[in-house]
Amino acid sequence: MGAKLRVYKRRIRSVTATKKITKAMEMIAASRVVKAQRQVAASTPYASELTRAVTAVATGSNTPHPLTTEVEQPTRAALLLITSDRGLAGGYSSNVIKAAEQLTERLKAEGKEVDAYIVGRKGVSYYSFRERKVVESWTGFTDSPTYADAKAISAPLIEAVQRDTAEGGVDELHIVTTEFISMMTQTAIDDRLLPLSLGKAEESEESSKGEILPLFEFEPSAEDVLDALLPRYVESRIYNALLQAAASKHAATRRAMKSATDNAEDLIKSLSRLANAARQAEITQEISEIVGGASALADATAGSD
Fold first, then answer.
1. 279 CB-near residues (< 8 Å, 6+ apart)
2. What angle do CA 238, 244, 247 make, to 5 degrees?
3. Residue 264 contacts residue 18 (beta carbons within 8 Å)
4. What is the Rg, in whole angstroms, of the alpha carbon atoms belonging to the chain?
5. Beta strand pairing status for 136-138 and 186-194?
């Protein structure tokens, strides 16, 4: 076997082994994204209804609350960035980091300082490499987040919102994550969680088209109801965002690994053609050498006669 043919054979074996790995990762991601989709479908209605309930309490009472009251001149904002712990997901993490950078620039242009809270090793590495300050970070669960993870994340954020800015608190809480739309489409989005925006409530009232809106009575008081509901509101929204991000990451991994598998198949076909051409060239050369040798031997024999 010639040297060129050996090189092609070795490359084909290497690419075939890589193809097996990418195919396995594609199948794993496909199974995980189905489970993640179910979790998103189960958590989204709860988060939506809880948001409506909190909005109803906020709009149905005149009680000022630190988690629903707009600050006249906000000076500090918290940004929760949700990335992945692992790579091999195409542009998933880079897209959400880019959205966080754009939001940070926008907040700074409004005269606000930004405190970063990061979920996922990719985001932590990005900020660490650029020597940017991170108030708190969480890693190790982005592929399969639980409600306990959402509670652990929301606790310091709620505390920061309730604290005065002079003591290190913040006036606003923003979240940057990836919204799962379909298996082929995932979009990086940013949303303000706190203070609670009441614009959606006004839109829903306008869209009710004359329906009788319910009257609310709060026991023991509207402030106590808000104190009980708002932490759950933040936890549910963060939990839903974690699930959306996990589903998006698995879908992106599946798509990236399928592309890698297809590319490996194309490369194997190309290398196989080159190997066949090299083998044919070797056979042709051997035949030519045999024919040439036989011809030379025949000429030598004829000359001696």
1. 5
2. 140
3. yes
4. 31
5. unpaired
Q: Contact at 8 Å (CB) between 113 and 132?
A: no
Take residue 196 and report the two structure tokens written for it: 């609670």
Residues 6+ apart with CB under 8 A from 126: 83, 97
Residue that the structure tokens 């097996």 belong to:
20
305 token code pair: 């006669």
The amino acid at 76: R
Residue 261 carries which side chain, given as an amino acid letter?
T
**pTM of the predicted structure, to 2 decimals:** 0.81
- Which residues of the chain fall below pLDDT 50? 200-213
What are the structure tokens assigned to 294, written together?
Answer: 């036989």
CA–chain centroid gap for 216, Å, is 40
Reduced to 3 states (helix: H, G, I; strand: E, B; else coil), residue 194 is: strand
Residue-wise burial string across 229-248, b where 16 or more C-beta atoms lie within 10 A, e elsewhere: bbebbbbbbbbbbbbbbbbb
* CA–CA separation, 231 and 175 (whole Å): 15
Q: Any idea which residue has 């966080």 for tokens?
A: 100
| Residues in Cβ contact with 54 at an 8 Å cutoff, skipping those fewer than 6 apart | 196, 226, 229, 230, 233
Question: Terminus-to-terminus CA distance in the chain, angstroms?
Answer: 39
124 near 100, Cβ under 8 Å? no
Per-residue pLDDT tens for 154-184?
A: 999 988 988 887 787 898 999 999 999 888 8
| Cα angle 80, 84, 85; round to 5 | 115
Q: How far apart are CA 211 and CA 199, in angstroms?
A: 18
Q: Is the torsion defined by CA of 279, 282, 288, 290 positive or negative?
A: negative
